[in-house]
Records
---
Amino acid sequence: MVQGSARDLLRDYTEGKLIRALAAHVGVRNQPDEVHGQFGAWQRSVPVLLELLGDCGLADLQVILEYQLPYSPKRVDAVLCGVHPDTGSPSYVLVELKQWTNAEVVGHGLVRYNGQKGQPVLHPAEQVRQYCRHLLGFVPMLARTPSCVKGLAYLHNAHRSADWPLDRYDHDDYSQLYTADQLGDLATDLTSLLAVADDAAERLTRARRTPAHSLLTAAAGSVSARTDFVLLDQQQVAFKAVQGAVAEAVGNHRAWKKVILVRGGPGTGKSAIALNLYSAMAGSRIKVIHATGSKALTETLRQAVFGQDGRRGEDVFKYFNNFGGARVDELDVVICDEAHRLRGQSPNVPDHRRYQIRGQIHQIIDAAKVPVFLLDDHQVVRPREIGSPTDVLEVARAMGCQVVEVDLDGQFRCGGSPLFDQWVLRLLGLTGQAPVPWSELVADTDDEYVVESVAAPHGLEAWLRARIRDTGASARIAAGFCWKWSDPVDHNGRLSLVQDVKIGGWHRPWNARQGVDVPGVPSASYWASDPRGFDQIGCIYTAQGFEYEWAGVILGPDLVIRDGRWVAQPDRTEDTALKGVPAPVFDRLVRNTYKVLLTRGMQGVCVYSVDPETNEFLRKHTV
């Protein structure tokens, strides 16, 4: 944590210490004398704020720089910590610093600045407003008195003109905006909100933080109240891109159809965006459908939102294969969550009917005025899945559609750790960079995500049980599909699961099959959300699309290390969907499978491989 009085921080900046401290805190490894990028931004903006506080008579005010929001990768440039001059109650002001000289509004809270091209960014007032809402949502001490939090954006290189475009925004206490020519107003407002209190910063940093809302527990409220998930930065860009496309499509029947493609890794908020979009569209009487390709995810959403009212759930949450008979543009919006699970044509379609039967991407684009695809490049795990960004782009452009692409950044699962996603990609050889020990990757950073490995499966289970006992959080074990999956057996008229996953003397059953009712065992769709699921081993079919606090992952013999390189072994899989696929395809799909399993945990992961050479490799890279 980089914090101190404005006076002390400014002194550290003058002595060349502050930028190095910020770099260590954030984990940036470039040279601190850089004039571009993050270092240049700190050098040009941080002293401006600290000098302003000194000029206001607030040199002793406590300041936290690069404050990381709870359970989020997002950082606020500065949090000014004090007490209210009149009441003496806690007072915190979140500050976003911008070096922009000019900006233009491009609609729906999005702007471009300094002649920027390409993907727009959030209006800075909206950005800091969302940060305030997020902080209030995850720090109960502040949520009890939300008036103690304020937010502002300071564009210290910009000057208002007669037609200053950023004023066309509904500002509130969380989203004020000041420019260089309003320095006096800013100083007056800061002194009206803040007085020095030595313990103010410490009170905030030590305040209890409630865990981020799980998709499973907040889905019900999300459909009726969009505030359950606060969307930040690029999540908001995606949200507003869809809003703009819908407004255009509904208001202008001749508009060129826009396909929205939202790309993001695990935990970047794709499902949160999907639910927020559904809530906003449905509330505006837009004809909208939410769709996935996962039975487990769809049934969980139906149950979470509508409880026992199954018919209403079926009306709202559909499957990708429900659009084959839809008429062109009969829906305003189709939101495709987990779109990497979209399917192509079945190989069993007769040649003379192939022109009539199209893949699911084509069907959904036809059915909706605004089709929205939210997907992950590395979560295609079955041979017929065609939901890669390239697939969507090719079909959309072949159909004459415009494509609006939004790339999500940051990790909202995995403890807000973008480094963990990088570590997994490198570990599995899914990027051009070599694997790296976790401790080396996070050295000199504040990353708190937990990565460990064990020597045996009973150690994995014990590790997870200790986390459940100590934190009361959820945990699950998932494994590669390398053991047969037996039907339950009847013991004196009572069904029970078979202990199929056998590793030495450690035996556990797979999760229950879909549609099979086993006493005391959750159905496959609820394995990730029902606490009883800990007693069974999940697989890719029940884990994908879900999250739990602590993840245990067992790598089977289908992917092993030989002489320092990954080797896929198709003959060791029990997944019938992968039987007979070409070796290079199997290699790609099995690595994606383990990538999914490794990134389900919100706070940490523990890994184990049944292969000794592979487990030794894991042990070296989890230190």
Note: The first strand starts at residue 2 and ends at 5.
---
Amino acid sequence: MSPSAPSRPVSLFRLDGGAPDHELLVPLTPEQISTDIPVRLSGTHARLVAGAFRTEAPHWLPHAEALTGSTLELSSMLPFAVLLVPRPPWWYAVTWGAGHLVLNDDHVEPGFGLRFGIRRLDPFALGLVASAALDVSARATQISIPGGGELSAFRLEPYGELVQRIAGSADLTDLTYGRVTGKRHRIRVGTSLWAPLAKDPEAFLADLDAVAAVVDEPDEDSALRFVSQTRPLDRHHPIVPELERRLAGALGCDGGELGLAWPPGAGPDAENAGSFLVTALGAGGPLHVPGRLEPEHLTARLASIPEDRRLKALRAGRITPCADEAGAEPTGAPLPAAKWLAYETTVEHTRYVFHQGRWYRIGETYVAQMREQVSDLLARRHQWPAVTWKPSGAPDDEHRYCRLVAEQPGYVCLDRDVASTPLHPRFELCDLLGPEDELIHVKWLGRATAASHLYTQALVSAEALHDEPQAMAQLADKVSTSDPGRVLSGAPDTVVLAAAGRSWHVDELFTLSQVALLRLDRALRALRATLAFADIPYTAKKKVSARRIPKQRRGGTRR
């Protein structure tokens, strides 16, 4: 954009208009601030804050110096500027350089830029879409199409996909740039709006008002409307206190209303962990959790904390996955305990989900459509033999039940008989192979969110058998060893999820579990496999009260 252009691209944020301007920014030291002055923009009183952050030497510097014998001075300054402009009922912040780092996230309106983009981006000329899965996987995806493409080219999931950023060509006739040049412009939208705003103060204020008008427009006619079906709630939304009160109550129970969700980047470490270390979660010292982490490991500690302080304790707690059962070999950084839990509740017919430490609102139409699809999916049934699962509470309950089923004609027990391939070093092909070579995955679903691990096991197995010949060879070998004379004619094309503890019914599954189930079905269909379900006959487990997890590690010392 030439220097003579009427506008320049900047990042624009919208902030809580009820907060005083000094609360809109994070605390800064005098050394970081070079300018902090009031300014007037065509009669409007605004505030300009500018300065720089001094960056420390990069963490890789000692290695480079040791390797080369050279001394390197690489610390630098990171300049920033922020212009705070009141336009009741909002504050607007224009940022340059590292200015976005100066804003107080507690007062920034989430999804502001996306709301503009939904109404003005060309759905057939998108260049980038970044999204995250609103489920237990915490999968994050960014797809770029340099020449631009329509929305379908970005392969977004129809359910449970949280769109975070979009870039593409936009109609800016509402703004000075569009009126003067008559051109479209490539903008970026997310929490902020990156777009050309006028350099003239009066025209700049008019641009701010025009952006506000666009954001407040109805979006019924937008092809991108579905992006707003699932959005994070502003921390100051009036419904948040009620949601947090309900979550605090659930944190004091046995964990049955809660589920686990891996924080971003922690999925592989968590799935393969031998134990978990929980620290700073209330009084009592660290908790060592051998084996799989469950919500009751956290609620056992939180139940002893007064309800009005439980959420603060949850957010202060940290969880570290460890490679060994003794908890002596951490495989990742300690992550906030709040990011490991999922919870959902309904307030006045609207579904709200607590996920990755934030609240999300899920549109009513979205939920109804998803429930209908899940109900249709769960109608696919596999006939299960009349073998009752009688839980004893022993760790090998599942294995013993699978061996019982394997006494029935046509069933082969492969539970705990792990396979290994270059892409999947250690995984179970299935718990049972059925009479028609069905891959059957078995689990006791004690709570509505427990199905996520079953989904993961089923998908990993199906992908390995589809993509890696070694997996198919190992399956054939294991089957012929267990059932001499039985030969697999090809890769199994039916995957069965068999569950005890609750039935496969839409009302028995969390919304996030329904999202993950629809994703699993789509993924299996892409692998030319069909998903089916079986309800295992069972006797109920005895109720046990939440207990405090011992602080002493097995085979180790206190930490």
Note: The longest strand covers residues 121-133.
---
Amino acid sequence: MKTLQSLDYLVFLFYFLVVASYGFWVYRKKKSAQTSSKDYFLAEGSLTWWAIGASLIASNISAEQMIGMSGSGFKMGLAIASYEWMAAATLLIVAVFFMPIYLKNKIYTMPQFLNQRYNSTVAMIMAIFWLLLYVVVNLTSILYLGALAISSISGISITACMIGLAIFAVIITLGGMKVIGYTDVIQVFFLVLGGLVTTYLALNLVSEKFGDTGIVKGFHHLLNSADDHFHMILKKDNPNYLDLPGLTVLVGGMWIANLNYWGCNQYITQRALGASLPTARGGLLFAAFLKLLMPVIVCLPGIAAFVLHQKGSFQTEMMQGGELNPDKAYPVLLNLLPAGLKGLSFAALTAAVVASLAGKANSISTIFTLDIYKKVINKEADEKKMVWIGKATIIIAMILALIIAPMLGIDKKGGFQFIQEYTGFVSPGIFAMFFLGFFWKKTSSNAALFATVGGFGLSILFKKLPGFMDLSFLASSGFSKANADGVYEIPFLDRMGIVFLFCVIGMYIISMIDRRRGVEMKGLEIDTKMFGMNKSFAAGALIVCGLLVALYTLFW
């Protein structure tokens, strides 16, 4: 294990001081106005489009994603970039169709939307569920895997890294959404710069391995030496088909995962909910452009490590417990960086973790304060009291995550898969509940409850199905594939798409029965004019779509 040198610590200290001092300056500058809870939790009206866009990406990309997706790049190639590139398309859909509904109906939290659209029972069930999910699954995994990543390149113990990250994140989060939003701009700058430095090093190493110099030649050698790693749509005979089942990434379950994450997730939408519609849309468009760049930072280093490994490099460094571990690709490359640049990458990883932790902690405190404390525990709470409760919630949530994280065995599952698996059980039902709640006024609250509980039950049923039923008959259509044990199972993303369809059908039937019984539905205020776009947004969206078509055509 390599350790950081004095120059690395100086670079990291510079990063820390820049973020901390800028955050403090934002806090002091905006403090006079910070009297309302909505201002504290949502930075109402004060985040610019570039701050919203940068904050969305900073909250989304964490260390486990940089390491996990580089590992997936090593194992399956550029195909894993579908999570990033399809997210760019998803952000445009959220900007055009979801944001106008949220802002027109003055929605500040996701449980508030469910309360307004359905009833308080659905809202409270989901508020408690989201709190548990955010603390027990998301906060813990970001904290533990982030500490694991930083420990692997710095030599500092995992426990010390976890405590340091938690304290840094709490300091930023206590400043409120304004401080998070604006410091995220700096976090993204370091994240992108540090990521590009690692990609530059990786491509240079490939170039040198083939007796050339320069990153362009390095990329050409990647294309020639690992042609099988540059296909976005995997065929049925590909060993990674279960993870990314062919066209499903374009027309199936990938949309459910992405639309639920980017459109129905407090953690993400919170950044835009306090803004005007043009500003919110501008932020989402900026985030879409940044998403197009992300595979260069998170996938290419993994593919480069694969080619170098094939050529005899990293034979011992990539091993863990006698087996090849693809997730070691990114840390192995980081350890080759010279002094100073390694400090920059250390800062980039820390920025990714701290920004994600701050965003999650802020969402936890927003949902608890506005949807549970104010509605159930203390209905008379004034603005000052609610801000105080929000700050206390942040500290308690982070302490709980510090205690729980080491007990979950997260590192044994693979970080990216850990989060995808647990959220994938519930996202089809949740998205069905939001989707019909938005666009079909006849959807009833009983139907919403069915989607929540039934969606989860159906996800577990399809997961366990191969244990008591032979699914090989689906193999010819691509809806099942033999796993490592020879058992045919339905690919994860296909499973999400199937569960979503079952939930929508079930919700339609229940809503029609409720309507016949005379149950009153609570539709939202929707006007088709809300979905109109200004020229600059439409032009930017067209450019994003054009680039996506070009990328998928080039790397089909």
Note: The chain is about 70% helix and 0% strand.
---
Amino acid sequence: MTVAKGETSNGGASPTHPGVSVTPARRRSRPLRKVLRARRRLRQALTRPVYTLHWYPFGTPVIRWADLIGLTALPAILLTLLVALLDPFELTEKTQLESDAFFYQIIRPDYPDTARDDITVILMTDQDLASFAEESPEMGVWPPPYSVYARMLEVILDFQPKTVFVDVGFLSRREAPGYDRLQSVLHDYIIYHDEPVPLFLSGGEKRDGMDRTIIFDLPGPSVAEVSVTHNPAYYPLYDFRNDRLSAACALFRSGRGLDLAAPESCIANDDANQLMSVVWPPRGSSSQGAGIFACRNLPESRIQRVIGAFLGMAGLDFLGIAPRNVASGSPYRQTCPPHVTLAAGDLHRQGGDVLERHLADKYVLIGSSFAMADDLIALPAHQPLPGVFWHAMALDNLLVYGDGADGSRYVRHDSATLFGPLTHSLAMNIVTLIIIQILTSIFLRILDATKLSFPSGAGFGRVLFGAAGWLIFTALIILMGLGVIWATKIALALFAFEQLKLAPINLWGIFTATAARTIIHLPKSLAAMSGLVLLRYLARRGGSRLSA
């Protein structure tokens, strides 16, 4: 039968292969074959070498496209993100807090001290109650009577501070002397300055129908209650549940002469829902003066601190790089607060020049720390301190980063949303995770290629010498690889913090992910390499005997 060009015989022959019938199954398999061919080509492209380390002394590592674009690290990246989202056992929160401590203690970003001396903390302890008892026996009892706070405010307000905050919750009245005296001080605050001295007290949780929670009548808004909610991860600038400013925000706005009645947000043109990540300075106040604390001398070099931190974790002290531990735990944790701190019991004893220097036109915060109510909080760069220092440092951040008119560059705890649940801070953590996992893939690729070979007929001494050199080189490669990975993480953390004003990335969370992958891979790689040493040696020795 003659078949014309372009036609098929038997109604099903292929036009390109005359006489060959095309079944429906073959037609359906064509898309599958195309997919398989595309997959094969993609695999060939991804496994194509990008760079080969020909100069490498123990093997020839080959870096492929799959390593550079993160495909080899994709399972580890997805698993880490899943763990971070589900957060079993609060691992993400715990590693973030540890990362903040490492960041502020060891890396220590540059933080201006321009507002440090504008803030003074008055701290009352058990010893101060004894000092007040010398003035009046009724003032030296526990809990401190109202007359103690009235006496302190009378002294402080005489020096015309910029604004005052009392971190004490007067939420229920008790039988104690001085109630009317303290009420008079709060009500007559206008007499202490040409303009009223803003005065704020700690408020509690409001219930339905309550306009205030403290027991005193407050003329407001410059004498009012503020919120003192504490969270170790961030500082809320506005308390929406109780509809009032936070302590630091109220102090900041009053000191700048801004409206306190009904502000839309703490900082002008800022998101009212924003949470601030408090930046902690590496040192305490440079002018403790009559203060009750003394600061430690800590290393200034960032490289020395980083090396010392890792040596300290290993229990080593090499040439004094890793300082000795102190009672507060970390050798890089400062033992003094960031601001000048005066003892409450010494206020009536201090000279006028000292009080003038530390109270006049200053932001003054009054706090307490008693044996029966210490109010201590854990801070990332300092020893545990009373909660009043948390508010003092938050105020310091607002004074340094916020101008109160054209917005603020304070560090956001969780910045604006990019899309959906993804924020800038979360995006930065994901980008850092991907970069570190790619570097880990390259590091493991180089490590796997670090192999030992022997020339034919090599003697036992040469084999032993070569194996020792190979082990030393492998140890150096591991240290260099981990050093590059950590240096990259620190650089990314500083970039996100100083340039983007984002909270410190989760360094320890990312380290945990990469370390787990390396630890799982490392024994297998080393066992395979070391196990082949003997086989290669025996094979070479056997081959030389046969040729002989």
Note: The first helix runs from residue 24 to 46.
